[in-house]
Amino acid sequence: MEAFRYSQAKTVEGAARANGTFLAGGTTLVDLMKLNVLQPTVVVDINGLPLDKIEPAANGGLRIGALVRNSDLAWNATVRDKYPVLSEALLSGASPQLRNMATTGGNLLQKTRCYYYRDTNYACNKREPGSGCSALNGFNRIHAVVGGSKACVAVHPSDMAVAMMALEATVHTHGPKGERAVELNDFYLVPGETPQHENVLAPGEIITHVTLPALPAGTRSHYLKLRDRAQYEFALASAAVVVTASGGRIQRARVALGGVGTKPWRSKEAEQALEGQSASADVFKKAADAAMADAKPLQYNGFKIELAKRALVRALQTTTEQA
Ligand SMILES: Cc1cc2nc3c(=O)[nH]c(=O)nc-3n(C[C@H](O)[C@H](O)[C@H](O)COP(=O)(O)OP(=O)(O)OC[C@H]3O[C@@H](n4cnc5c(N)ncnc54)[C@H](O)[C@@H]3O)c2cc1C
User: Could you give the CA distance from residue 317 to residue 61 in angstroms, rounded to a whole number?
Assistant: First the structure.
């Protein structure tokens, strides 16, 4: 292995040309290398790149460098003021020490916590394509109820990405073919027959930054995470809501769910059920039912459907109560 051959990538172009696996905070990558789940031949340390700024974006929104640490993003004054859903999602994740290391790019690309993926004694199509999926008929309590396939039901674990999905973030990249911008909802792939492909990044393509659009005046947002213990635990179900309401009527709603999907799960069905309606318990319940209408439980995770619905209803109540 030529691990850490490139101790410092001097430029984004240089990092892309090196065509290795990028090392940011290392809190996912190094863990998985120790477990022999990931065995990259070349690791490129990108920490020297100038990608650690949070700045106003040209469209009036926010530009977040890929190497901005999760703690810095969570406590940024603009994020706390204009995008509280993002701050709350970040602060609900991992521990303070991990958040001090973890980066925006690395968080988006963190790997699933499926125990069968992380243990090389078990079959996993994501880790070893064609080997099978031990979760399908195994202990699948933490697995996905939406977006799964016969090849993979692993949940995407990021909290931050769920908030960014509801904020309609755009991922900006640089690769051997140049720069491009991809909406976050199109960035992630559902597993289908090829769960090893989790997103649209090509080999050597690096995330440089993420942009968030400006939100309409009066927009409020909230992230609610439900899990087995209050701290230091991944979501069993979570909800990110971004709502613009006036006089008790919802004009605009963006909804994403975590802990239930093979990718951070945007629910346009829930959004349609909310927009133009009065903020009420009945409307929130209909939106939650719409969000989970296509959910497919496995043997041990059926409880997640009701949990996700309740998370969404509670998040909507909290957000609109403030209005
Ligand atoms: C004990 C523990 C608990 C955790 N709890 C939570 C939790 O509750 N919620 C949650 O959301 N997360 C949680 N996490 C995950 C944590 O948020 C991620 O490990 C972290 O965000 C990854 O960021 P990183 O910079 O360390 O990524 P790295 O480990 O450096 O990289 C992760 C992946 O992204 C790639 N990569 C990194 N940056 C780029 C880039 N700019 N361009 C292209 N590729 C890139 C790497 O090659 C690698 O494949 C937990 C982690 C641990 C260890």
Answer: 26
Ligand 1 centroid to 243 CA: how many Å?
28
Say what the pTM is. 0.97
Contacts of 243 (CB under 8 A, 6+ apart): 219, 220, 221, 250, 252, 253, 254, 274, 316, 319, 320, 323
Q: Which two tokens stand for residue 265?
A: 């799960």
pLDDT tens digits for 205-232? 999 999 999 999 999 999 999 999 998 9
Q: Is 234 in the pocket of ligand 1 (CB under 6 A)?
A: yes
Length of the chain: 323
Q: Could you give the 3-state DSSP secondary structure of residue 254? A: strand
Q: Whose CA is nearest to atom 6 of ligand 1?
A: 94
Over residues 141-157, the pLDDT tens digits come to: 999 999 999 999 999 99
pLDDT confidence tier of residue 3, bands split at 50, 70 and 90: very low
Nearest atom in ligand 1 to 43's CA: 47
Q: Is the CB of 223 under 6 A from ligand 1?
A: no
Ligand 1 centre to CA of 252 (Å) is 31
Written as one letter, the residue type at 103 is: T
| CA 91 / ligand 1 centre spacing (Å) | 14
Q: Report the nearest-CA residue for atom 28 of ligand 1.
A: 26
